[in-house]
Specification:
six-stranded parallel beta sheet, alpha/beta
Length: 242
Amino acid sequence: MRNTVDILGVKVDKVTFAQALDIAEGFVRTDGVSTIFTPNSEIVMCAREDAEMMEVLNNADLCTADGIGIVYGSRILKDAVPERVAGFDLTCALLERLSKTGDGIFLFGAKPGVADTAKANLEKKYPGINIVGTRNGYFKPEDEPEIIDEINNSGAKLLLVCLGAPKQEKWITAHKPELSTNLCMGVGGTLDVLAGVAKRAPKWIIRLNLEWAYRILKNPSRFGRFMALPRFVVEIFKAKKG
């Protein structure tokens, strides 16, 4: 039985990082396609304006609080999630576990060459990791049957889809009936960081819950997207008042 909190219409699981990792590994071991999404406040605000995205998120098998805004929002609503469970951190921890079991992993998304570089870096970091395929995120609708076949024929149990939200969540949900992987995760810019083409905030900034500010400073063009955060806060207080 899932224990979730309603964050402006999006059901977010009340799980610790350790619990989320165990659940994710359990999905890899279970036949049938499970999905994990990691919404932040920006994605929640997107879902409020996009009924399809709202349905996609609420039909996931696990939704973790990727952004600190979700954590604080849940506290304001007096139904707190235990902690932030960032998609990047969850992915890395799961990859480390799977490197010890040899389960197949497929990397899908980002610009041409990025997934291949991420694969090479992961193979250096985790010698036992079994990355059975890569595919960049640039494709046309007519390419999708070939992509599905490539993923399924690889024998992968874990599919990481890094197309950015909401595209990755919608893509996973639309093609879930055709996929033979056990777990699909939509994890945004994870491949860029694993490939070294993007840098994550220093750990001390992450500990201070200021990763969002670091991203704006590193990439000012993202400022418009982060305006969703103050709108999110306003809506949270409205929801609290009922």
